[in-house]
Amino acid sequence: MADSMIYAYIFYISFAIFVIGFIYRIVRWANIPVPLKIVTTGQGSIDNPKSGFSMILRMASEILFFKSLFKNTKYDIETNVIKSNRILWLGAIVFHISFLWIVLRHFRFFVDPVPSVIAVLHSIDTITPTLSFSGILIVIALLYLFIRRLVFPELRYISILSDHFVLLLLLAIVITGNLMRYSIRVDVVQVKQFMLSVLTFSPISMDIPGIFGLHLLLVSLLLIYFPFSKLMHAPGIFFSPTRNQINNPRHVRHINPWNYPVKIQSFEEFKKEYENAMKDVEE
Ligand code: HEM
Questions:
Q1: CATH of 2-282, one of 1.20.272.10, 1.10.10.60, 2.60.40.420, 1.20.950.20
Q2: CA 20 to 30 Å from 110, out of 26, 73, 77, 249?
Q3: Do 247 and 48 form a contact (C-beta atoms < 8 A)?
Q4: Which of 106, 183, 231 to mutate to test the pocket of ligand 1 (most atoms within 8 A of CB)?
Q5: 134 lines ligand 1 (CB under 6 A)
């Protein structure tokens, strides 16, 4: 047990870093000029979008279904065959959907009264009173994503510390969460009371159970780490010119937005200026 104020202040600082860092990176991306068409193309109107609508469909298929990851292939050096690699797609999609589901369900701790849509999401996920599907699925998906980087030598070679760190951090958060759900129970009414007091900037002083404190500290660490890490791919995909551009350079004239008026000389002016000199040379 520890006093809650320290957790509240750590949460405030980390949330502020998250918001400022997030906005800073978005503003920087938004200001980077993209003067050229560098859209990646495939076949069909969605993978080769010629209109804004097709481009939006393309982005939606990436964001909602991870389409290009689904089409991802793997070269098998032993059989010299290119194979599809759907298991990575499955691991990724299960992780992301469970994560989203868990975060939405957590809103029952942050808002009062709980909106009915959150209550419905919660009831779908918790078919039996204790078991939470998303909480279990996310552990399986994270373990898969972590172990594949260790087991396959080619993946181990291209993995850096931050690849492992982020998966371990997420695992630590979900494991402490699951511990609270299945073994070291905490008083969720008290948790909600505390979180509401934090979110209304009037944190109350109370004893925080160690396991909840740890869950909260790990979440704070995630908030601090997020804006400076590859986790920024979440908003970053919207700024990806290879995906968000329309492939219309043969239909629409693309004028360099930086073109400034250049002083040019017309042929008549040129002739007028050099006519006599040229005549002299010719003679
Ligand atoms: C300020 C933010 C957060 C607070 C206050 C919080 C609080 C809690 C509490 C009190 C529980 C226990 C629920 C129960 O006994 O029914 C829990 C469970 C859990 N938490 Fe968090 N949490 C936060 C953020 C997160 C985040 C960002 C994740 C990341 C995925 C996460 C993942 C989980 C999981 C997987 C469980 C267990 C099962 C479940 O309810 O789905 N939590 N959390």
A1: 1.20.950.20
A2: 26
A3: yes
A4: 106
A5: yes
Does the Cβ of 174 fall within 6 Å of ligand 1? Answer: yes
Region of residue 44 (left: phi > 0; alpha: psi -120 to 50; beta: else):
left
pLDDT in 10s for each residue of the chain, 283 residues: 458 899 999 999 999 999 999 999 999 999 998 888 899 998 888 999 999 999 999 999 999 999 999 998 888 888 898 888 899 999 999 999 999 999 999 999 999 898 999 888 888 887 777 788 999 999 999 999 999 999 999 999 999 999 999 999 999 999 999 999 999 888 999 999 999 999 999 999 999 999 999 999 999 999 999 999 999 999 999 999 999 999 998 888 877 777 888 889 999 999 999 999 988 887 7
Decide: 74 and 84 in contact? Cβ < 8 Å. yes
The pTM score is 0.87
Indicate the domain borders of the chain: 2-282
End-to-end CA distance of the chain: 104
CA of 106 to the centre of ligand 1 (A): 6
213 CB near ligand 1 (under 6 Å): no
Ligand 1 site, residue 246, Cβ cutoff 6 A: no
In terms of Cβ atoms closer than 10 Å to its own Cβ (0-12, 13-18, 19+), residue 240 is: middle
Q: Establish how many alpha carbons lie within 13 A of residue 127's alpha carbon, considering only the half-sphere containing its beta carbon.
A: 3
